Amino acid sequence: MLESFHTIVIGAGSGGLTVAVGLANLGKSVAVIEALHVGGDCTNVGCVPSKTLIHQAELHGAENPASTLAEVRRKRDALRDKETHEFGEVQNLSLIFGRARLIDPHRVAVATLAGGERTLHAAHIVIATGARPRTTSIPGLPAARQLTNETVFEIPNIPRHLAILGGGVIGMELAFAFRKLGSRVTVVTTAPRVMDKFLPEVAEALGESLDRHGIAVYAGASATSYDEATETLRIDQGGRVISLEGVDYVLVAIGRQRNTEGLGLEAAGVAYSARGGIGADSFGRTSVPHIYAIGDVTGTSAFTHSANAQGRRVTQRIAFPFLPARAPEPFYPSATFSDPEVATA
């Protein structure tokens, strides 16, 4: 049976929910399709658990790290449950758990968690499927010892020696947090310095702080192999092989990969690329005018607040199409909760 809605939103993260709730509050019937958890990256594997961990590390240090990690999970899970309940109660909003696939420019097939399939139809479709951590293969490293921001908060206790691959935002935030919790931390980055996309002065300030905290940094280096018997991670730095001993976990923070696979973008005629994600204009319109894309799945957003902002612009475009749509997308400020913190605008 075909179910009809005013708008279908694929992805219940911050951007998708901004559109869904905004339109539902304006009286539009909205279906939100979510494959895993309400809240997306921010609630489940990003802002909320990472900033809770950073705050708890500042408060309690190495006093009881296992308890700190448990508290991070408790707060995250409580917020997720609260959000799931609250959004499920919004009038005009139908929350559907399953995997979405575009059949054509107006229809979406949903493979439900119960094993069935539903077919939805809408005048407008919003794609807000986000991104996931980019991974790498290190010979000899068991999967159980490789972490990403999606799995690091699930470990029962802190690593004895955490090697972090990547010197960007995620790498820096978690390097300081786990060091304060009592882990030995080593950062390995292929870039010439940490936070290499920022001003050189940022790397200089952070480099001094990393040194004060006892966090080792190997720039211009990459991991080559792992010996589980000796817990040794071998890295190559300009042809020099260095052995990092006692490494029980490796956190991979080398970038993000947009979630475009299996969405049926070709069937709907939506243009996208593996590198740039789904192409969209300053109001989220893709190559198919009534299909929109916002958040990490596009090439212009990498933060929760920018996804929210894009969601508000899409809500305006769908609900009030008669308003001018000429304003360019604004610049988005951001903050990295390292020590010291780094802000950009």
Structure write-up:
- The chain has 345 residues and is an alpha/beta fold.
- The chain has 2 domains: 2-133 and 256-336, FAD/NAD(P)-binding domain (3-Layer(bba) Sandwich); 143-254, FAD/NAD(P)-binding domain, CATH 3.50.50.60.
- It contains 8 helices and 20 strands.
- The chain has helices at 14-25, 40-44, 47-60, 65-88, 169-181, 200-212, 265-268, 304-319; strands spanning 2-10, 30-34, 93-102, 107-112, 117-127, 131-133, 146-147, 161-165, 184-189, 216-219, 221-227, 232-237, 240-244, 249-252, 256-258, 272-273, 277-278, 291-293, 334-336, 342-344.
- A 5-stranded mixed barrel has the order 1-2-3-4-5.
- Strand 12 (232-237) and strand 13 (240-244) form a beta hairpin.
- It is elongated and about 60 Å long.
- The protein starts with a strand and ends with a strand.
Record the SSE blueprint:
Elements: E1 2-10, H1 14-25, E2 30-34, H2 40-44, H3 47-60, H4 65-88, E3 93-102, E4 107-112, E5 117-127, E6 131-133, E7 146-147, E8 161-165, H5 169-181, E9 184-189, H6 200-212, E10 216-219, E11 221-227, E12 232-237, E13 240-244, E14 249-252, E15 256-258, H7 265-268, E16 272-273, E17 277-278, E18 291-293, H8 304-319, E19 334-336, E20 342-344
Helix pairs in contact: 1-8, 3-4, 3-5
